[in-house]
Design brief:
The protein has 135 residues and is α+β, with helices and mostly antiparallel strands. It folds into two domains: 87 residues, no CATH class; 32 residues. The chain is 27% helix and 30% strand. It has two helices and eight strands; from the N terminus they run E-E-E-E-E-E-E-E-H-H. The strands form two sheets. It has a four-stranded mixed sheet, with no helix packed on it.
């Protein structure tokens, strides 16, 4: 089980078995549950991890794959519990990374297109309107 702590700033010392969540900075951090001692940072955003809190426990989605760590641990955090997932091959890790990049690109591309679609049409300048008036 993990204990969750909502904090404004991430503390200098990260305790084992505690996940620190800064809503102000959209970040969560905890020590790798495999015991290697590495700190795991999970940005909370529409393109990274999603955090849910039911009043008692937290869940992060999707799973956490520490592919850059020697341990390469892979797990879920659900209702303050660690649920280990299966080991991924190098090919699976690469496919997962490519999928993440594609999903991020699609997300930001849709935001840009939506912003462009909702922008007001180009309004003629005052000088253009005066010129058109005399035509």
């Amino acid at each position: 089980m993990l204990q969750h702590k909502f904090v404004e700033f991430i503390p200098d010392h990260i305790e084992e078995g505690v996940i620190y969540i800064s809503l102000e900075y959209c970040t969560a951090i905890h020590k790798c549950p495999c015991g290697c001692g590495k700190e795991v940072v999970t940005p909370i955003s529409p393109t990274d991890w999603k955090l849910s809190f039911n009043g008692k426990s937290i869940t992060l989605y999707p799973s956490i794959g520490n592919w850059n760590f020697k341990c390469q641990s892979h797990y879920w955090i659900r209702n303050n519990s660690i649920e280990f997932a299966g080991h991924w091959t190098k090919e699976e890790i690469e496919r997962g990374r490519k999928k993440d990049l594609i999903l991020k690109d699609e997300y930001f591309e849709s935001k840009i297109l939506k912003a462009l679609d909702s922008s007001p049409p180009n309004k003629p300048t005052i000088w253009k309107r005066i010129k058109n008036y005399f035509k």
